[in-house]
Amino acid sequence: MPFEIVHWVSEANPRTIVDGTYGGGGHTRLLRDVLPDDGASNLPSPLVIGMDRDPSVIQRDDVPGGPGSDPKVELFLGSYEKAPAALAHCDRTHADAFVLDLGLSSDQLADRDRGFSFTLPDAELDLRFDPESDLPAHQWLAFHGEKEIADAIYQFGEERFSRRIARQICLRAKERSPVKTVGDLVEICRRCVPRSKNHDIHPATRTFQALRIVVNDELGILERTLASAADWIAPGGRIAAISFHSLEDRIVKNAFRNDDRWEILTKKPLRPSEEEVRENPRSRSAKLRVAMRKADVSGGLPGRPPL
Length: 307
Ligand SMILES: C[S@@+](CC[C@H](N)C(=O)[O-])C[C@H]1O[C@@H](n2cnc3c(N)ncnc32)[C@H](O)[C@@H]1O
Fold this sequence. Notes:
Layout: H1 2-10, E1 16-19, H2 26-32, E2 47-52, H3 55-58, E3 73-77, H4 83-89, E4 95-101, H5 106-110, H6 137-143, H7 146-157, H8 162-174, H9 182-192, H10 205-216, H11 218-232, E5 233-243, H12 246-258, E6 262-264, H13 274-279, E7 287-293
Parallel strand pairs: 1-2, 1-4, 2-3, 4-5
Antiparallel strand pairs: 5-7, 6-7
Helix pairs in contact: 1-2, 7-8, 7-10, 8-9, 11-12
The structure holds S-adenosylmethionine.
S-adenosylmethionine binds next to helix 2 and strand 2.
Pfam family, one: Methyltransf_5
GO molecular function: rRNA (cytosine-N4-)-methyltransferase activity
Subcellular location: Cytoplasm
């Protein structure tokens, strides 16, 4: 929903935008054009800060105008949770807009070494956005017991057959042939998960989603970031988040509802048009929610009479 993002963000007349999930840079390129041209002396220079956890994304040389060559774009390697540090590095305390496009990019899906795609069975089951962080998914499976694995697949994948799958994963480990590749896990899921009625969901979809969420702490990062975002988004500023499954969407919805510093601008989540889904089938489950940071109410300390 790139044009919806541009619409909602531009309404805030932003000078500083954080694109927390840079990916292929599509949003950053569009958001850059929303910025004013001027470098008014007493205001911070117009800037999009692009962040991504994946070093291969940030080090690519096809970023807008080449790395370091566009004065309106700064890229940071790291989780969007560190947005306040990226802002401080650029000599600013607040952003006027914060954009999140959660999940993984098409480039990551196509990468033969990451294990994100079921169509590459020989790939190691890694599933990390940042290959330097924590454990790849196959090691996470090796270090956890059947119950923990089943609980994670159920909680983060909403997979009804989580116990069967976890049992098979642990059986393989006992037989000294632990799950190591995408193909190993897909084969287990095929045996444990009956085909869906319309055959529209691959039997491994939910399990892979669960493991990706676990190894990247995706929901924890989202929850913590949204809980503190009103501290560093300027009054009148916007937050726009695109989520791809119900667990993410629930976190976004509740974060906006539970903090009265946000005014919700999209009463219902926005969905991609039929045309966008035709062009990009992966967008079919996307939901966009937008909120505005309300102006601070100055009332002194609670219970204290006004001076
Ligand atoms: C769907 S893609 C974003 C696509 C991007 N909006 C574009 O227009 O090309 C999601 C990106 O978010 C990144 N990502 C996931 N979790 C992240 C996090 N906690 N912090 C920063 N980037 C993250 C992934 O590495 C991936 O590159």
